Amino acid sequence: MATALPYRPSNDSLSASNRQTTGLPRLSPAPSFIGRSPSSSHGSYRRISTENTGSSFKPRRCKAQYPLDSPERHVEYILVASFHIDRGPIMEHQYPAAISGDESMLAELMLPDQTHVRSQDWTMFFLHKDTSGDDDTDSVGGKKKKRKSKYRGNQEGADIQDENSDEASDDPDSSDDEGGEGPPLMYVLNLVNTKQDNTVRRGAVVKAMAICTRHSFLHIYKPLLLLALEDYFKSPYPETLASLYDAVNAMDLSLMPKMSILERHILQSSNTKDMFLEKFEQMIRQREEEESQDGECPPSPKKMSRYVLPRDTHEYESKVVYNDIPIPVKIPTVIWPETVGDFSLIKLVQTFAVPHATSPQAFPAHPHLTTSGPFTHPIIVLVNAILTQKRVVFLGHNRPSGEVAEAVLAACALASGGILRGFTRHAFPYTDLTKIDDLLKVPGFIAGVTNPTFANHPEWWDILCDLPTGRIKISTHVEPAPVTEGLLFFQQQNALLPNNTSNTTHDPTGDTLFMEDILRSISQRHGENAVRAKWRGYITKFVRVAAAFEEAVYGASNLYIIGPGEELSPDSPTGHQSDAADPSSLRGHGYVWTDEMAKQRELSASVSRIEGWRNTRSYYSYIQDIAAMYFPARPIQRPDITHHHDRLRALKLSHSESASIYLALAHAVKDYAGICQLLCVAPENQAGLFYISMGLFHPDQVVREATVDLLDRIASHPAGRHFWTQVGRFAKLGYIRVKRERDAATQSPISGAASPTIPTSPGASFGGEPQSLVGVAMGGNISRRS
C-alpha cells in the first residue's frame, strides 16, 4: 500500500530568503509552477473601511499565512483514474509528475465500491510520507533517495509546533517542518462521475479526478473539480489537467494575515464578523506601501484603494479563474488541528442521538466507554472510544463513500476539539475490504467503509458506528480495561467517603447534562460554530480534569506546567500570594470544583477513561504541545488566569478573596498578549467580561479602580473592544460611577465643573473619538465598517 512521492529539486533561481514559513506544515521544496497574481483577490471583498485605524502603540508587521513570494503550492498533484472493463481501476494521468509507482492502489482508492450505481460521488483519502525513505542527502551512488508515501492517516499536529515556534521567535525561518508525529500528509479530494454511454461494453464510463494538497481546507476545490472533470470527459488530455493546476496555484491568499494561537482562539470562539479587522487593514496598508515603493501605484490621496475588507473575518474570500470563469472560494481564517475538509458535527450528533432518544439500547459495560452506565449517550461512547484509542469503524452500507468519509472526519474533530491531535493521522476516511490486512496493523484506527462484511467481523473493530441505523455497537472482542494505580487509589478514596458516589448523583461526569445542552443548541439552531465551541470546551475540561487526576494520584501532572512561585503539590494553597508586594503572585492552578466532594465524585467517575487516555498517542502529543505552546499560549505565567477566573465564576468568595483576584488580574494583564490570554479565558459565548466587570461593585475602592483600569485596557484592545460592547448597561453604569468618583477625588475645585469623558472608550485608542459617559452607558459604538 505504499506509494512514492517523487523528489523534485527546487529551482536555483529562487532565493533561500524567500522560503518563509506560513505557519502551516512546509510543502515540497519545489517552486510553484505558476506565480500568484495579487489581483486575483481584489473583487472578492467589500469596499475598504476608510476609518483611521491608528493605535496608541506601533503594531508589529503583520505576516501573511501564504506569502505572495512563497514557493509553496496550493495543489501538488492532479490525478485521473478510470474503470477499465478488463483491467479494472487504472490510472490515466498524473500531473505534473507521477505521484506514485503503485498506480493500481491509487486507482482503487479513487474508484470506491458501488461507484457505478451513482452518477456522482465524493471521497477523501490521505497519502503518508514514509520517514524511513525520506532523506534528501546524497546517497553513496550520488542519487537522491525518493520520498515515499503510504495510504494512512493525516498529521495536522506539525502545524501546532511550526506556528508556535514562529510565534516564540522573531526569526520566521526558525520553525521546523516536522512535528512530533512526523511530516504532514497530503490530503486527496476525489470526485467520481459515471456517465451513461451505450457505445461502450458496460453501458457507462466511470472516471475520477483528484486534487492532492497539503491544505486541510481542501473542500474549497469541489466546484473546480466539478468543472474540470466535466471538461476532461470532453477533452481527456493532460492539457485539461494543466489548466486546472495552473488556475488553483494562481489563487492569491497573500492578504490573509497570520494570527497567533491566542488570536485564533478568540476569533473562532466569537461570532463577531469584524473581529481582528485591524489585521486585514494592516495587510492592505502593507501591500499598498510595497506597491508604492515599487512604483506600481503612485500614492494619491483621492484615489480609492483597490483592496477592500472582508465581510466576515472568519473567512478569507478569494477567487480562482478557471477557463476565464472566476470561481469564488472561501478559506477559513482559523484552522485547528484535526480539522480536515467540510463536515458537520451537528449531522454526526443527530445521526446517533435521534435513535437513542426514541429507543435507547443498553451497551455492554466497559470502563473506558460506558462512563455513565449502560445507557451512556452513544456520542459519549464514540468520543471515549477515540480518546482511549479504540478501533472505530463507520459503516455506511448503500451510502455514498463521501458520506462515510465525512463521518470519519467529523468524529476526529469531535474528539480533538482543536485541543488534542493524533486522530486524523491514523484515520482512513474511506477504505475497502481488500486493505483489511494493512488496516488491522494500525492501532487505534478510525475507518470508513461501505461493505457490510465488516459488521460480521467484530474481531476487526472495537466500536462499529452504523450510519443507516444510527446505532453504535461495542465489540465482544474489545480489550478489557486493566486495573491501574489510579483505579485502586480512588476505590480506596470512595470507601472513605461518607456517601457512595452512586447515591450522591446520577451524572457525576456531567456528560448527560452536556449532551442535553448540545441537543438543545442544535434544536434552537445555534449553528455549527456554537456546537464546535461547546465541544472544544468539553475537551478542554477533560484535559484539565485529567491533570487534576494525575496530581491527586501521582503527586504531579504531565499535562500542566507549574507557574513561577507555585508549589508542586495537589494540596498547594489557593488564593495566597507568594510575594506580599506583588499582587500578581497569587497561587492556585488547575480545574475548579465547587467543593471537595464534587471533585472526588467526578474524578472517581472519570478514572477509567483518563487512565485509558494516558497510554495513547494523543496524550503524548498533548504533552509535546503544551511544552511548545507554553510561552505563545501563556504570556502571563503567573497567576493562573484560567484558574482564578473559574473561581470568580464557580465559587462563593469572600470580599478579600475576590479582591486578591481582581488585583492580581489588574497587575498581570497589561500588554496586548496578556489581554488576548484573558479574553481566551472569558469567551463571548461564556458570559464574556461579566465576571471581570463585577469587580466594579466591590466594596473596596482600590479594587473598583483597578477593575476600571483593567477594563480600560481591554476596551482599547482590537479584540477587547468587541467584548466591551457586550457588557451590560448595569456594569457600564458601575464603570461610569467609579470613573466619576475617581475624577472627583483628583479634580481641583476650579476644574470640578468640567464634564468628564472617558478617554479609553472602545476604539478611542485606535483613532475613534472619545465617547461621553452616556454614550458608553448606552453602548453607543460607531462601527468600523464602511
UniProtKB/TrEMBL annotation:
Residues 159-180 have a biased composition (Acidic residues). Residues 142-151 have a biased composition (Basic residues). GO terms for cellular component: plasma membrane. Residues 1-62, 132-185, 287-306, 746-786 are annotated as: Disordered. InterPro entries: Actin_polarity_regulatory (IPR052809), Afi1_N (IPR012860), Tripartite_DENN (IPR037516). Residues 76-600 form the UDENN domain. Pfam families: Afi1, SPA. It comes from the Eukaryota. GO terms for biological process: actin cortical patch localization. Signal peptide: none annotated. Residues 10-23 have a biased composition (Polar residues). This is UDENN domain-containing protein. It comes from Penicillium salamii. The lineage of its organism: Eukaryota, Fungi, Dikarya, Ascomycota, Pezizomycotina.
